[in-house]
Structures are given as C-alpha cells and as structure tokens.
Write a structure and sequence with these properties.
The chain has about 230 residues and is α/β, with parallel strands linked by helices. The chain is about 40% helix and about 10% strand. Strand 5 (about 185) and strand 6 form a beta hairpin. The relative contact order is 0.15.
Length: about 230
C-alpha cells in the first residue's frame, strides 16, 4: 500500500472537528428530495487523481450534496461540472463529467484536493477547522513529489496553500503573492502558483467567472508545465 493510499484512508476516518462531523453526518441522514435514493458518503474526502501529477488543484471544501454525497471531491455539483469539464478539455481527465465514485473518471498528470475535507455549515469552515485539516494538505504536498504547477480555486485555497508551504518550512517570497484571477506566481521552491476564482455558482451565475476566464487558467497551467519540461 502506497503512502498516499495510507493518507487517504486516514483522511476518511478523521473525526477531529466535532462541528463538521455533526454537519456532514446530519446532511447524509436527512439528504434532499432530489437525492433521496442516494446512499450519501457522509465522511471526509481524500484527494483524487494521479499520484505522479505535475498539476495540483486545490479547492475550499466539499459541497454538502456534492462531494459529501458522492464521496469524490468536486463530484456531483455545478462546481465539479466546471472543473472536470475544463480538465477534460485540457487533456487532464478522460471524461467531462464526474458524477459518482464509480463513473470511470481518471485523471492524468493532475491531482485534486482541498483545504478542508468535510462539508461545512454554510460552506464556511472555522479557522480552527482549517488548522486541524492543514496537516493533510501538508502531507499531500510532501508525497506529490512531481507537482510543478498549483491552481488555487479561490482566495481561501490560495492562502491555504501558502500557509501549508510555510508550515513545511518553505521560505515564502516577500511581499507575499497576491490573489487575483489569472495571476501567475513563480515560487522559490520551483512551483508555479496560478490563482483562479472558484467555479462556485455564486461566481459563475453572476458572471464573475466566465467559461473563457476559467479556460485561460488551464491554458496558463499547460504552458507552465510545457516550459518546465524543456
């Protein structure tokens, strides 16, 4: 069993945050009408993808009736439709839709994770919950040794990645990289960090994030990876 598989099993069993445990399990019991027939996952979500990935994507947390239902990160909700659709068009995913754990989705050269692994009430984790969950991201960063490009979906994921790197002893640049959609930062430890608005409905339905804007992030990621392979 690989170290990454051991970590994923550890994440699934986590009960460090009583508020998040209570919420994710309550949602899994009560469900919503349109998903009444589903057997909800109701547990923390491990990362998903290629253990040899050079591209790492970091989100905020699972959706109550998305990942918390299906058991795969960014799966079963509109944000996931945007993300996996973009990954498919960019050649990182074998299909455009991610609807369940057994739908045949495979990622190549890409790994998807989050700053918090349980669906939080109101989609707002507490600072203490970020702190308790950060060691999982830190361990992923250590195990995913081939990562050369990181896409942070939203400012919280952007800041969470930098905080995890700081706790790992990596010297952050000064001034700190600033979040802004499409901004590209080349970090001292050899990783290119690309900021993106999160593909939440709050952003996509209001036009804050459009399909061309989102596509441009993955174009930049592919260019950065191509430059590193020369």
């Amino acid at each position: 069993m690989s170290s990454l598989t051991v970590l994923q099993d550890t994440i699934i069993q986590c009960r460090r945050c009583p508020r998040l445990v209570a919420h994710r399990e309550k949602v899994a019991r009560e469900k919503v009408r349109r998903f009444r027939a589903w057997d909800y996952w109701g547990k923390p979500l491990p990362g998903f993808g290629d253990a040899r990935a050079r591209l790492l994507i970091i989100g905020l947390a699972p959706a109550a009736h998305g990942g918390n239902r299906t058991g795969r990160i960014f799966t079963g909700d509109r944000s996931g439709d945007w993300l996996y659709g973009a990954l498919h068009r960019s050649g990182f995913a074998n299909q455009a839709q991610s609807v369940s754990r057994d739908d045949g989705m495979r990622l190549t050269d890409c790994f998807v994770t989050a700053t918090v692994r349980c669906a939080p009430p109101g989609n707002k984790p507490l600072p203490s919950e970020f702190d308790r969950c950060r060691p999982f991201l830190m361990e992923e960063l250590q195990l995913l040794k081939q990562v050369r490009v990181v896409i942070a979906l939203g400012k919280i994921a952007f800041d969470g990645y930098l905080e995890a790197c700081k706790e790992l002893g990596r010297a952050l640049p000064r001034p700190l990289p600033a979040f802004g959609h499409g901004r590209v930062h080349r970090l001292p430890w050899g990783v290119t960090l690309i900021a993106s608005y999160h593909p939440s409905q709050q952003n996509t339905l209001t036009g804050k994030l459009t399909a061309p804007m989102f596509a441009s992030v993955f174009i930049k990621a592919k260019k950065a990876l191509a430059a590193r392979s020369r």
